[in-house]
Specification:
Permease, 6 helices, membrane, transmembrane helix, transmembrane
């Protein structure tokens, strides 16, 4: 029985991490795109980011719902619905810093460009932290963990590179 609880906890943890990764990559792509255009205000950038964030969260929630229907042949129970909503919308914590940075830019303390650059750095750092949280309890050597975290950081940099290439 304890093994089943561990598996359920792992599945819940994986769901939380997955949504955070999706949302962070989506936000990173938007921040880089906005940064490369160079003319967006802090308000326009925040609006674009919130629309993307909410759209991504709704898409992830819809994917969870459809996947659940296919696997279980039924809708969520109340507990499953709470878990799905918590997983999807709990990911909002990964985009707090970009909104704070854009708020500082809206107050005139920073330029919008500086806020977007700081947001990109924060989101990339967030991906690395999410990766560390994912691998910290897994029985891996330090070198295997370094490879896993390096691969995630490289993917984050690849997103930045692709966005710059597309919009540069």
């Amino acid at each position: 029985m304890a093994h089943e609880i561990d598996d359920a906890e792992r599945a819940a943890r994986a769901a939380h991490l997955k949504e955070r990764i999706y949302l962070t990559f989506a936000a990173l792509a938007v921040v880089i795109t906005l940064s490369s255009h160079g003319h967006a205000t802090a308000g326009q950038s925040a609006t674009t980011l919130i629309v993307t964030v909410l759209g991504t969260l709704l898409a992830v929630f819809t994917a969870d719902l459809v996947s659940h229907l296919v696997v279980h042949g039924r809708l969520f129970t109340r507990a499953e619905l709470r878990h799905a909503v918590g997983s999807s919308f709990g990911a909002l914590s990964t985009v707090v810093l970009p909104f704070l940075f854009l708020g500082v830019a809206a107050l005139g303390v920073w330029s919008t460009e500086a806020a977007l650059h700081a947001s990109a750095i924060a989101l990339l750092a967030s991906l690395i932290v999410i990766g560390w949280v994912a691998v910290r309890r897994i029985p891996l050597t330090w070198f295997q963990r370094l490879i896993a975290l390096g691969a995630e950081a490289a993917l984050g940099l690849a997103v930045i590179g692709l966005q710059v290439l597309a919009h540069g």
